[in-house]
Amino acid sequence: MKKVVLIAGTEHTRETLHEQLESYIGGIAQVESYAIDKGIKDKIKADIVIISTSLIYNEAILFIEGVSKVIVARRVLNYKIIENLLFIPEGEKVLFVNDCKETTQECIDWLKKLGLNHVEYIPYYPGCELKEKINYAITPGEIDIVPKDIANIIDIGPRLIDIVTIAEILKELNVYDEKWEDATIMYLDKIVSLAKKFADISKEKTRAFNHIKVVMDGMKEAVLAFDNKGKIIVSNENLKFIVGAKGNIVGKSIREIFAGNNIIEFLLSCDKEASNLFEIRGEKYIITKFILDKDNISIATLKSQKDLEELEKQMLKDLYRKGYYAKYSFEDIIGNSIEINYIKDIGRKIAKNDLTVLIEGESGTGKELFASAIHNESMRKNKPFVAVNFSSLPENLAESELFGYEEGAFTGALKGGKKGLFEQADGGTIFLDEIGDASLKLQTKLLRVLQEKEIMRIGGNKIIPIDVRVIAATNKNLRELVEKGEFREDLYYRLKVMYIKLPPLRQRKEDIKVLLDYFISKKDKGLKIKDEVVNILINYNWPGNIRELKNLVEYMVAVCNGSEIDKMDLPLDMLHYDNMLRQDLKLILDIIEDLRKRGENASRRKIERICREKGINLTEQMIRTRLKELEKMGYVKSQKGRVGTMLL
Ligand SMILES: Nc1ncnc2c1ncn2[C@@H]1O[C@H](COP(=O)(O)OP(=O)(O)OP(=O)(O)O)[C@@H](O)[C@H]1O
User: Fold this and answer.
1) How large is the ipTM?
2) Which range is the signal sequence, renumbered to this chain (predicted)?
3) Domain span at residue 509?
């Protein structure tokens, strides 16, 4: 879990802002807070530090160490308490009391901007002298400074963090998409309730609405609140800009403001919460609306699709910078064979759920390609895709790489500790490649993460919840490893919730030509390949699968001088797979392939019978020597017992 630290000037402000932060991000982040007037003993380490005001910035920054982001909060007066000010008699002199000249003036300006200018404000801070008798004092939490003999003191409490700063914090925590709507409802709910309250006191109405408007104008989104008849109660400048309205729109009907019945219908529908895409004056907007239960008032926010795309792009750029992105989609998986189309189909379905996946297949068959495509078609597509390869991860580093560590966890540990790959992948997908190479100790740890969905850094004592989808891959037969006691059975079943088995290239020979054309055209658009070369390559058994084919294309394109790749452009050892493959051997291979397709064993007796049916007489002994030859060439593997001969 990320750590957010608040530094405030005074204890009173700290308490109020801490509570406010907890209400917005409690549960998503661990919130800690300090007040400078109470003294700060240790250096502060956190993911985000929020400084309550720029006035304490220089002092606060001295306490910070190893922080990824510092945010200076923008603050607004606490609108819950502000209503008390409306009842101060007109024309009254009011002392505004705060801790220094700048903040005092800032708050007075704010109150005036809110429309609360029916009284005369007199600034007062330590060092000022009170020259006349004054009946009212207002202070944002600085009661101790208020002169003794003032009869009415209104403590409006410390100013709160504004919604723009809240949005910035949510973005830094990577939860903007999921949490922004909730934060907006929470923020607007209070404001609109206040509006409703004042709507009943008609003489105070304008002032209250002015206040709400200032708060709403500070928001980046366009906002609108209306009653169940569609009468607008409050809106902000951004909304007027989007709909192209001039003058005051409060009191008008939403029908006058929005053209097009579909938007009106949507806004007035009884759905408690709904979201949809609409076009307004040629631009696309996502409109989200909620009905506030207690007041039966609806709030709608409008976000430009362009801005959202921009935000998404920004987040993606960040992932690209770190290399945590998935390069491929299903369109990049080439092949026309029934096998590959079937697996692509399954893969697309798997992408739509959020379950753990195990991909098995020989080296180079495209396991990482599929994992990447699944991520890119899943709901996690805009979040990180982090790949870990267990075959190249040294045992002694694996744990710290995966789970991270705290500062001082071991000699050489970085200052401030380090996030592990599971934490880096939070919200997205982690691809555990060559999982069969993970040690038993690591398997136990991985099992725990999969079961509990949480990790603990090395040397740490905090439990960090993790929201990641796991896709594992292996070129080993995990079932066999389980039987040999080299792979934990419980982990095997945890991983194999969804399962994909990628067939080797020699079992989908139809794809060879398509893949050759594809990789050649990627290197050199105009270059062709002669059929005789394709035929040789179809006869080859491709132990390195598509990776080997891709590398071969690189070679052929590099050595080819003409406009067509011919036999002479093949590496020498490949020429051996020319159609020189003797007819008798080819016949036997074809028979084995046919039997495999029908799900039958290829015993020597069966091969002998089929040959006979085709009018070719080969004894079982002759078939045995030919199978031996084919085995030497890497085409088949003879198994003892009833299984017979298998194609490789
Ligand atoms: N169907 C395909 N279409 C296009 N390219 C493919 C296809 N299958 C694999 N490739 C390419 O072949 C190479 C190997 O693929 P990938 O790394 O996904 O295989 P892998 O099974 O994960 O291999 P390993 O087990 O060795 O890690 C990559 O460059 C990949 O883009």
Assistant:
1) 0.97
2) none
3) 505-575
